[in-house]
Automatic annotation (TrEMBL):
Subcellular location: Cytoplasm
EC number: 2.5.1.7
Coiled coil region boundaries: none
Positions contributing to UDP-N-acetyl-alpha-D-glucosamine binding: R92, R121, P122, V123, D124, L125, D305, V327
Protein name per Swiss-Prot or TrEMBL: UDP-N-acetylglucosamine 1-carboxyvinyltransferase
Gene Ontology CC: cytoplasm
InterPro entries xrefs: Enolpyruvate_Tfrase_dom (IPR001986), Enolpyruvate_Tfrase_sf (IPR036968), MurA_subfamily (IPR050068), RNA3'P_cycl/enolpyr_Trfase_a/b (IPR013792), UDP_GlcNAc_COvinyl_MurA (IPR005750)
Chief location bin: cytoplasm
Length: 417
């Protein structure tokens, strides 16, 4: 299993090319199963989650031609079949094939994803959305089994909470249903809007994606399409924090300010400067860090996918900061590992109180999920001496060439194979 060895203390300086967004790419790959016409996706990140998702659609009979950061998908000969436990277990986002398979083939069977290191993560809202569209749907032998022999029919779907995945499931299925679907209390994340842009390029008729209310006219006539995936706002936020934590300056090429408003506002409150450049965003800190409280929220609020990284930053800010996690019930697995590096953090239910400003010291650490792992890398960048971050496969799920990108900006980081 690969590890990262990091010697802290280097101020980062240079440019980092922000890759395409993992969380936009995954539903777009799933969406390719809706259409018999070819779909070309460009600006895909080279991360293992994307490779796994391509493997899933290949298992369903899609033909995939890969080139650097792009794929051509031909799902004309795709079949429904069963998406196995082994596949879903590795990556929860696999559940996103349920809607497209059901909508196109009138039946689908996908193993229940179950919980993971950050929470229980039920899929009841995905199931509810599909049953409102007319599917017969239930759980049999650990799998979601869905059928709609006469096709799906447009409906009004009110989501109890604005789930990103359930909004994407509902939107994809609705493109192939008869008539109009209204999704109320929809997630507003840029990745939802980018999925709508991809589906629209494929021939779908969707309005309102990126707002609370999405309207989908079904009965799509599919056509060949090309779609360029948006840049990864979470990767960009992570490198912004890398600049901030090391007191450096990074140019985040391709990063889009309009997707990052809440995190930029919070970073500015900590004493970090962020401004648009010709090629993206520039992030810099040369004064002291200030402690700031945050609460994670659905977009446009502060993203849960940056909470762990922000916690690493607050470990270095003198004073106390309170981090409230409201999206996932168990997303603090990085806390004991940050404490191994010398951080002073007290967990209080769904909040973490960080008392920052005391120096971190290098240690062996291990993480249980993607963002927890990268928070340890960030802390190690400023810890005195050497740290070793174990279980790098978590990082490889969602960060393209993290060690290379950080190394090019001056970090002392090495992958041990
Ligand atoms: C591949 C992908 O895009 N992953 C992102 C997506 O995950 P994902 O789509 O799984 O996140 P959701 O927005 O669905 O989940 C938000 C909350 O709703 C709950 N919930 C969700 C669905 C459901 O049927 N029932 C239910 O109770 C979840 O357990 C969680 O507590 O959005 C999350 C919230 O921004 C991010 O952290 C993930 O990185
Ligand atoms: C939680 C994440 O991903 P997933 O929903 O695929 O587990 C993430 O990207 O931080």
């Amino acid at each position: 299993m690969d590890k990262l060895r990091i010697v802290g203390g280097q101020r980062l300086q240079g440019a980092v090319a922000i890759s395409g967004a993992k969380n936009a790419a995954l539903p777009q790959i799933a969406a390719s199963l809706l259409s018999p016409e070819p779909l070309e996706l460009t600006n895909l990140p080279a991360v293992s989650d994307v490779e796994n998702m391509l493997g899933v659609i290949e298992q369903h009979g899609a033909r995939v031609s890969r080139s650097a950061h792009a794929v051509s998908i031909d799902a004309s000969a795709a079949v429904s079949g069963e998406t196995s436990y082994d596949t879903v277990r590795k990556m929860r986002a696999t559940v996103l094939v349920l809607g497209p398979l059901l909508a196109r083939f009138g039946q689908a069977q996908v193993s229940l994803p179950g919980g993971c290191a950050i929470g229980a993560r039920p899929v009841d809202l995905h199931i509810k959305a599909l049953s409102l569209l007319g599917a017969e749907i239930g759980i049999e032998g650990g799998s979601i089994v869905a059928s709609a022999p006469n096709g799906l029919a447009g409906a009004r779907i009110v989501l109890g909470s604005p789930s990103v995945g359930a909004t994407e499931t509902a939107m994809m299925a609705a493109t192939a249903a008869r008539g109009e679907t209204e999704i109320v209390n929809a997630a507003r994340e840029p990745e939802v809007a980018d999925l709508a842009a991809c589906l629209s390029a494929m021939g779908a008729n969707i309005e309102g994606a990126g707002t609370h209310r999405i309207l989908v006219q079904g009965g799509t006539s599919w056509r060949a399409a090309t779609h360029h995936t948006i840049p990864d706002r979470i990767e960009a936020g992570t490198y912004a924090i890398a600049a901030a934590i090391t007191g450096g300056q990074l140019e985040l090429t391709h990063a889009r300010l309009e997707h990052m408003a809440s995190m930029v506002q919070v970073l500015e409150a900590t004493g970090v400067s962020v401004w648009p450049g010709d090629r993206g965003l520039i992030v810099s800190r040369d004064g002291p860090l200030r402690s700031v409280d945050i609460t994670t929220e659905p977009y446009p609020g502060f993203p849960t996918d940056l909470q762990a990284q922000f916690m690493a930053l607050m470990c270095c800010a003198p004073g106390a900061s309170l981090l409230r996690e409201t999206v996932f019930e168990n997303r603090f697995m990085h806390v004991p590992e940050l404490m191994r590096l010398g951080a002073n953090i007290t967990l209080q239910g769904t909040s973490a109180l960080v008392r920052g400003g005391t120096p971190l010291r290098g240690a062996q650490v291990m993480a249980t999920d993607l963002r927890a792992s990268v928070s340890l890398v960030l802390a190690a960048l400023v810890a005195e001496g050497e740290s070793v971050v174990n279980r790098v496969y978590h990082l490889d799920r969602g960060y393209e060439s993290l060690d290379r990108k950080l190394g090019m900006c001056g970090a002392n980081i090495e992958r041990i194979r």
